[in-house]
Batch of 4 targets.
Target 1
Amino acid sequence: MRLAILCSGQAGQHREMLDPVFDTPGCADLCEIASRVLGQPVERWWRSLDEGALFANANAQFAITLVQLANWQRVGPFLGRAPSVVAGYSLGEVVAWHVAGSLSATDTLSLVRERARLMDACVPPGPLGAGCMALWRGRTLPALREARTQAMARHGVSVAIHRPAGELVLGGAPRAMDAFVADAALAAADLKRLPVAVPSHTPALADAVERLRQALTRRPMTEPRVPVLAGIDGTLQRRAVDALRSLPRQVAEALHWDWCVETLAALGVDVAIELGPGNDLARQLEAQIPGSIARAVDEFAIAEDIAPWLDLHS
């Protein structure tokens, strides 16, 4: 068995996702760390957010990271083996370096908070709920691909993430995405607006790249215990210094999650666990790698169920 840990990105956040973190005594130390990074009690902060604020970039990135750190802390001891590789989707790539042992929980949370601040400084977020990204689903006929290319140029929209099976995540300012989604030339497209408040992985965030690299250099990183996939090109990263190359660039360059899945397949990965929230990456992996089994932590009633499930598939 070759096991992969998958670290999720934004768009799957919801009001109840931090409840297990707050209710689990073993997560108390992690909550204390999160409170120190935030400068206020993390549970009070989370409970104070209204439904719209859950999707504000800074709030979403911090909360999703905390969920994944808590899930890794809960399930890691029950794996009984080290994963073969860690892969992170968008924001999840930062979390992946924590899972690989390179970043402490404190440095991961503080880096994510700084990352969100730098991204917001490049493109001031629009009204809450005005998503800056959209998912283009399914393979596309040549005529519609041409219409998409023209509409992207017309409205100032860029490819943010290449996903398997020809899917794309597209990014642009809220008004640009409004116009793009409403474009009559794309009436036949299968488009889903995503609740992401900044156009991540597009040139609009170019000014954040060097500042994020500087923020990384201020945080001590140890050598990863397992390889981390680079979202920008799907290559295996085996040294801490590799993070200085990939993490800053990925905020402003299109990600190739399709290539990451191809790398996982080439490595012979046949079992995967997604830290969540949600199971989008797990579903993609099963669909693209024949014979693979992938589940999200959310799908297990308790963390102890991970061990027998892994034994069943080893």
Note: Residues 42 and 153 are 42 Å apart (CA to CA).
Target 2
Amino acid sequence: MLPSITYLDLETTGATPLKDRITEIALVRFEQGVEVARWQTLVNPEQLIPPFIQQLTGINNRMVENAPTFAEVADKLLAFLEGTVLAAHNVRFDYGFIKAELKRIDIHLRQKVLCTVKLSRLLYPQHYSHGLDAIMQRHQITTVARHRAMGDVESILAFLDSARLELGESAIANAAHQLMRGPTLPPHLDGIMLEDMPEGPGVYLFFGENDLSLYIGKSTNIRTRVLRHLSSDHASAKEMLINQQIKRVTWLETAGDFGALLLESRLIKERQPLHNRQLQNNRQLFSWKLGATADARPIVTLLTEEEINPAVFGQQVDGQLFGTFKSKRQAIEALRKVADAHQLCPKVLGLESGGGPCFARQIKRCKGVCCGGELPEIHYLRVQQALVSHKLKAWPYVGKIGVREHNQETNQTQIHIFGDWCYLGVAETDADLEAALNTERTLKFDLDTYNLLLKTFSAYKVELINYSIAKIHH
């Protein structure tokens, strides 16, 4: 299939490479289609194996007590992997564990990999499931050592033998080469570096000459999204232009998609990348403020972004704000439409100057508050009702809250702190959390954060912690 390929499977104490450890390694190496070596060993994980994992794999703590540690078998493993392609079922899982174990002993591995799950999808696209159990059932493969490392490697090899009989060697070889080829990348970027990109959520940053910030984006899978950006199959002229200008790529991982959205928004506003437009903080925000009494003239006033105080949203007196507009002109046009639709007085609203009845009254589009035909209190109530759909929502919590995200793959937990619709910071430790909760800072309203929180609260996609109730315990 490939000139040199090594099929590998691991058993582990859990699913998270950063905290769980390897308990068993098995591999079989082929050169030019001929098996040249195989090896298997139990590994002392230097931590207890959970009961569920013991039941699943049959590997218990007594079995690994006197087994070598990973550090003691690392050289032998690296010798097997040298100059070969590492193949495994869901190879990112196994590769991630090997890289994490090697990193603990200050070895950084870069290995070409092939995923037999993806290979099965290419060879048998008519099937929905490509897990090892489903493949074994379809191809009538049996083993007495399921969930043991060598048993699973041999099941993968049996699957490939079955596929050769059904589809032919050339079909398997072509599919493998297609997966190994991957996307076509610009010649000035290091493809090996891109292999190190995580397949989880976060933000990626593209830089040009002199470290000019070109573009910042977010994704639930950084590696997939960046490789799609850099492939030769560009979706737009903009992507082609970005591709031509890129000199460096970096990324920042987050615990989840919510944190990635927040980080993307903040970094774009801070760095003003050349090709980001939507989230750049180069606009002026306006909002209408309703007067505290019916006798106020004008009854609404236009506030700029600097004057918007999110702490008073929703207050019944002297705090009700309506609408978020990107220009003064847009705000005035929106108010004119509301006035016309609800027969409100443009003069009382401050949209028209001069004495006597307003022009709308003369054409019977105003109920006459400007000339004694309607009580100011009634008009005031109608203004409130007309603007209600534009009203900025009051902060729905007493005090600050945290939005908690946890990534099981990386074991990363982040708590994002908010108060009065404003983002106060992110915490990954108790010290970070206490600092964020106790720091007093001037709140600055950000429309993107406000809209994101509205969507988040309505969807209930993340865990909310109310810090006015839940205190910090060390």
Note: Residues 469-474 have pLDDT under 50 and may be disordered.
Target 3
Amino acid sequence: MANYNENFYKTVESVSNNSAKEFLPIVKNILPKLETAVDFGCGTGEWLFTMKKLYGTKIHGYDGDYAKGTLVIDNSEFTPINFEITMPPAPTTKVDLAMSVEVAEHIDISRARDFVDALCQQSDYILFGAARPKQGGLHHVNEQPQSYWANMFIDNGYTPVDLRLQVLFLNKISYFYRQNTLLYVKDIKTINYPVDWSIKDQWGAKEFKKFVTALNKSAHPGEEE
């Protein structure tokens, strides 16, 4: 992967901090438990740090060696890795949550399936999102529609759970997390996911339908899902 500099990670830290604080309580309420977690492409480790602070989660992050100087998590909670060359080993015991948000678009298409397969070895619950076509960003070499990644998880026996209605109005969460992030679950019966239809009541049926239609499309008109 590209050698991202300190300025890149400072920007990531600022964006991730606010987003994680708002997003993670929603995920926590859905999962059976959140005692252990790993993050593929953790950057500064903000999402993991927030999990540990809020819930006492035992955490571990993976990213390039160049992230070391910017970590907000302890060095013992971090393993440097180049996803273009290798993947983290499968754990002896699966963790409660594996995650990777806004990372997979940085990985060459030849390694994309290996990346998803490695995530699936880590947990039965995976929080995943990646940049869509034309989203733009530093070293985005593999921007893909939602279905591209979803089909890989489905091939591994996971069901996609659409969290977007739950985070719709949480403006402290950066738009790309709200737009791109889904939860992939091995056994859908194990999660608690009541859809908050009060959103519909707040907006009215017509506006709600219009918004959901737009939400289920790409941010870029004409893209096929």
Note: The radius of gyration is 17 Å.
Target 4
Amino acid sequence: MGNNFQFLEIIFFAMVAIFIILRLRNVLGRRTGNEPSNTNNFKDHKTSKSRDVSNVVSIGEKNYDERSTEQKNKNSDIYEIDPTFNETEFLEGASTAYEMILTSYANADFDTLRALLDDDVYNDFYNAIEDRNERKEQLETTIVSINSKEVIEKNINDSVIDLTVQFSSEIINTLRDKDGDLISEKNRVPDKIIDIWTFSRDTRSNDLNWKLIATQSEN
């Protein structure tokens, strides 16, 4: 009787184990559509310095053979040192970086600026924010739209790629004094802005993040 009980007990636990394995296989093998993607660049392949994933900017990579012949010929000099480069995805990432940098400048988000700017540009932004803080002014930036973005210049120096992008955007910059009052009524309407920003990346560096190295405005 005792042996029969032990035998039934073994069968019971074996059936429970099989049930659990099947359930795990069903759950782990099912794609929900919420899995993280593997697109990379304009970030250092998941992180940018100390920032978390929510702050990185993605300029994805594609297999070399997936790009059109026209795009390959247009950027053949870049592909020689970076076969993963894709201009369309670069511009999408640059556009996201543009928004993040403007918003971070308004919010005095030094961590994000530190990750996206080179040392000289970061120092300029830092000093401008500190001057604003000393005057106790508050800046609110609303990016209404980015109407166009275009690479207008490419420079390659050894392993370093510099790409200059022209952004055409509509932005509302609301500046308030220490009492919260508008400094100018002009702040209520969007300004049409033409910004020319240069991004740079050293293809031999372990840091795969594109950095903003120069800014210019035509307004």
Note: The chain has one domain: 58-217.
